Amino acid sequence: MNEALRAALTRWQKIALVAGLIGLAFCVLGAVVRTPQFFVSYLFGYLFWLGLALGCFGVAMIHHLTGGRWGNVTRRFLEAGFMTLPVMAVLFVPVFFGLRFLYPWAKPALVAEDEVLRHRRVYENPGMFIGRSVLFFAIWIIMAWLLRKWSVQQDGTTDPAPTRRLRKLSGPGIVIYPVTATFAYVDWIMSLEPDWYSTMFPVIIFIGQFLSAFAFAIILLAWFRREPPFVGVVSTTHFHHLGNLLLTFVMFWTYVSFGQLLIIWSGNLPQEITWYLHRIAGGWKWIVVLLALFHFFLPFFLLLFRANKQRVVILMSIAMVVFLVHIVNVFWMVVPSFYPQGIRIHWLDIAAPIGVGGIWIAVFLANLKSRRLMPQNDPRMQPVILHAK
After folding, report:
1. 318: number of Cβ within 10 Å
2. Tens digit of pLDDT for each residue in 332-348?
3. HSE (side-chain half, CA atoms, 13 Å) at 361
4. Is residue 367 in a domain?
């Protein structure tokens, strides 16, 4: 990494850190003066950035299993993303202090009145919630550390053994991650509504995480493409492949989201349909319109054209729209559980994602600067370089 680029990244890292600290300072203020709202806003902001880290984690393992050219030039971005998981584990601690403000099963009065909550209290209780969360983060962090360790080891040797270890871990890892995350998101989001459940909901979460990770990787690759060591290696083919993957996950996210809606709406069971009724009441319906237009229709239509996937500026613009609208999607999944009568945006809904996001970006850039931007000695890299030449 040349000194000019390192200096630029350091400058952005400082800006992100300052923004994050200011955002968290406002969160502390909000925790004092608007305690229930603080926990709602913090949960929303936190879950978006954690989802991006986990999305990078999952996409990296997909690359190690498939070996696509797109992954060789984005691997360091993905690794820097999932190596934020230790910090995200620490940032999850405030949620433990707000369980009684967030979850119906943590409110004894509601549990006493609701038969479903009483039935679930062996599983859904503060001690089990905290224990499972610690276990999930431990599993993810250990796997992430091994993926990063072996990827860096490959930089220092021509022996392909580290690459083989990456593939061996990614096989079971791409199963372990969804299974553990399923239980995690049942705890963290699905249990916000006392009587609601859906077997498709965790799948929607995973696909959204992958989608945000691919959009993030496209934005960064477009930004770095003229910088060493990317210049002369990155070509329109890489962006074309990433555009195809972005289109695939846009379609997949829409398919599972609409499939869940269709099944639940057709069944018309009170405990299931209420979740959607909370999210179309009042102004919330305009969020649905926004998601339909900018999380599906617009990117789907534009990504159908090969030229748009090969023009870097256009593809990066599409990725930025998808990335930003996905923040709105996480907001829509979390906040209506607390304000089902209509849309309500509090200043903490802005401070919390900025606070957590600033810290996330600062740690991400620190991880990115700590290693070479392009993997070295990976046996899968040579075809990439030859193709670019």
Report:
1. 24
2. 999 999 998 888 899 99
3. 21
4. yes
> Residue 211 burial by CB count (10 A; 0-12/13-18/19+): exposed, middle or buried?
buried
Amino acid making up residue 278: H
What gap in Å lies between CA 209 and CA 363, rounded to an integer?
19
Query: By the 8 A CB rule, do 79 and 20 touch?
Result: no
Is residue 389 a part of any domain in this protein? Answer: no
**Count: domains in the chain:** 1
Q: Which domain holds residue 45?
A: 3-380
Whether 103 is in a domain gets the answer yes
From residue 56, alpha-carbon distances to 115, 303, 326 in Å are 39, 21, 15
Structure tokens at 349: 């809904």
pTM of the complete model beyond 0.85 = yes
Question: What is the C-alpha separation between 195 and 270, in angstroms, rounded?
Answer: 9
CB-count exposure of residue 310 (10 Å: 0-12, 13-18, 19+): middle
| pLDDT tens per residue across span 3-43 | 888 999 999 999 999 999 999 999 999 999 999 999 999 99
Q: Is residue 387 part of a domain?
A: no
Separation in Å, CA 67 to CA 59, 61, 163, 167, 384: 11, 10, 10, 9, 11
Q: Is the pLDDT reported for residue 383 higher than 70?
A: no
Helices (H), 83-125: 85-91, 93-96, 99-102, 108-113, 115-120
pLDDT tens for residues 226-253?
A: 988 898 889 999 999 999 999 999 999 9
Q: Is the pLDDT of residue 384 over 70?
A: no
User: How many angstroms separate the CA atoms of 271 and 241, rounded?
Assistant: 42
